[in-house]
Design brief:
Number of helices: 5
Strand order of the largest sheet: 1-2-4-3-9-7-8
Number of strands: 9
Shape: elongated
Oligomer: single chain
Largest sheet: 7 strands, mixed
Structural class: alpha+beta
Low-confidence stretches: 1-14, 74-83
């Protein structure tokens, strides 16, 4: 999927109202009721988006280029430290102001990239001024625990035999 930075020329051909500026990305056509939503975290394009009223959480994730898996990985030399067998988990938080109690509450959805979106997230409508934050978490698999155990035992055995030879 193309990042939002690569979209302006194509989007302006299809939707002349789309404006990409450092302050806000306008994706709602003029004359349409719009909401401003802030998107933070592990997505391809973060920022403020002016979207048509009623846009869902899954749609705003699409506007931002989707969860950015590489931002959640700790890398060394371009390879994932945890290995290639992790299953990334996406945590999506929605901060919404509670108008009745003058406070805020947080809605949270968690899913793995290999799973479909949670149904309530797919249809959850955004409101003006809300914040969507995306985190990527990776947990080691059973194979990685086994490989870690084997390498640790190998190191301990090598140290033991080395000490036995010296002493």
């Amino acid at each position: 999927m193309a990042t939002l930075a690569a979209i302006p020329a194509k989007a302006q051909e299809q939707a002349p109202y789309a404006r990409f500026s450092p302050d806000i990305v306008r994706l709602a056509p003029p004359g349409v009721l719009a909401d401003t939503v802030n998107v933070w975290g592990a997505v391809s394009q973060r920022g403020r988006f002016m979207v048509p009223r009623g846009t869902s959480v899954s749609e705003i994730l699409s506007y931002t280029g989707g969860p950015d898996i590489s931002s959640g990985r700790r890398s060394r030399g371009g390879t994932n430290v945890l290995g290639y067998f992790t299953t990334p988990q996406v945590d999506v938080y929605l901060n919404r102001k509670d108008e009745n109690e003058n406070g805020e509450y947080v809605e949270r959805w968690t899913y793995r990239l290999s799973e479909p979106f949670p149904p309530d997230m797919r249809n959850y409508p955004l409101r003006n001024g809300e914040y969507v934050t995306v985190y990527i978490r990776e947990r080691p698999t059973t194979l990685q625990y086994i490989l870690f155990g084997v390498s640790t035992l190998g190191s301990l055995a090598g140290g033991y035999f080395l000490l036995e030879r010296i002493l």
